[in-house]
Amino acid sequence: MPAMYHMMPFMYPPMYPGMPNAQPPPPIATAEKGRGKQMPGKSQKDNKKRRGKAKSSKEETPPPQADVDQNCSPELLLVRNAQGNAVRAKITLQEALPNLLEFAQDQHGSRFLQNKLDEASSEERQLVFDGVCSEDADPDAVLLAKDVSGNFVVQKLFDIGNPDQKKILAEKLQPEIASLAKDNYGCRVVQKAIGAVSKDLQVFLASSLQGNVAECIINMHGNHVIQKCIEQMPPDSVSFIIHAVENDTASLASHIYGCRVIQRLLEHCGAAQLTEMLERVLLNAETLAKNQFGNYVVQHMLEHGRLQDKEAIIDIVRRNIVEFAMDKHSSNVVEKCFEIATIGEHATQLETKRAQLIDAVLGAGDATSPLCEMMTHRYGNYVVQRMMEHSRGTERERIWRTLNALPIDYRSNQHGMHIMNALQKGFKEFTPDQSSGS
Q: Where is the region Disordered (predicted)?
């Protein structure tokens, strides 16, 4: 009978020498019972997400937040459950009036009021105005104008109100117009008010801005209010804005918001009003033309300024033609010069200036010509194209001959190819007719 050997129980070897009490490695975690196998490379969390997409349609979804939130009136709760739909809510404006301000500050309540005000009777509208403009209103009209939902109700009141109602509402807002103008939501109410009230009330509202114009101009919200004043108010009523701009023209012209205000002034005010501002822009035109925001002011001055302003700017551009044409921002100014000297208000008087500008680009017509450098440049080639587009009469033939005589192979350059294509499409009268065999 063979000898029997006693089997020793298996012992995990120590993890490190000299560590007899080392514990065995923990068992590999297995998928929880009833959850299926874990996908390779996926965590259980990922699998849960995937399983979440395949939930049974019979599983109950969480109730809307409006059903859970009981901190509101029963009428507003109905509107919330109907998500602001005035028809589905099945309540009337009269029933909502006792909780008017609560409705106005609620997303769905605000939408309900706006819809109901469109079809409300004059008596119902008056009740809403009274509720918003009353002395003991909490929040008052100003705070409501700054509210994310309430501001839409105030705007609606300016839309549907009669002159007397709008006057009362405007008087409530007027002392805080400067504060509202710089508010994310309040600025919308101020713009709506300026566009909805009489000229006298516009001046009354704007009077609160007079000490805050510069601050509003450079504010991301306030600048829209200042622009609205310029667009909607009589030109002789915005002198306070013009004076504020005159005090810091160069800085505002190169500001992201200030440049917009100056553009609106150029569009809506006469040159006689803007004389000092125009002179200050001209004084800084060379710097502004190369500025990412200032170039828009110079372009607007070319479009809306006096003849002498346009001539002065074209002269500045002509003296710096290569530098300006190859700059990202001032190249737009050069293009605008060719445009306004051909199809603008003073085009006839600017024909000589246009010819001088073309001379500056073409130069001697050889390898030293600025044209050689510009036509193969990422920005300069657009200037050349605009010159070709706005050339007239004998200018066209001269441009065609110069381009064809240049001692460079601009056709091998991606920007030069744009010039070649423009030449072939726009100057066909100088191209030999290939079909005739000539």
A: 12-71
Q: Is 267 helix (H, G, I), strand (E, B) or coil?
A: helix
pLDDT tens for 286-313 read 999 999 999 999 999 999 999 999 999 9
Total Cβ atoms within 10 A of residue 85: 14
- Could you give the domains of the chain? 306-430 (1.25.10.10)
Alpha carbon 236 to chain centroid, angstroms: 29
Residue 403 corresponds to which amino acid? L
Question: Could you tell me the pTM of the whole model?
Answer: 0.79
d(CA 240, CA 316): 31
Q: In 62-219, which residue ranges form alpha helices assigned H by DSSP?
A: 65-68, 74-81, 86-89, 93-96, 100-104, 107-119, 122-133, 141-145, 150-160, 163-173, 177-181, 186-196, 199-206, 213-217
CA–CA distance, 95 with 26 (Å, rounded to integer)? 67
Q: What is the DSSP string of 187-215?
A: HHHHHHHHHHS-HHHHHHHHGGGTTSHHH
Measured distance CA(5)–CA(125) in Å, rounded: 104
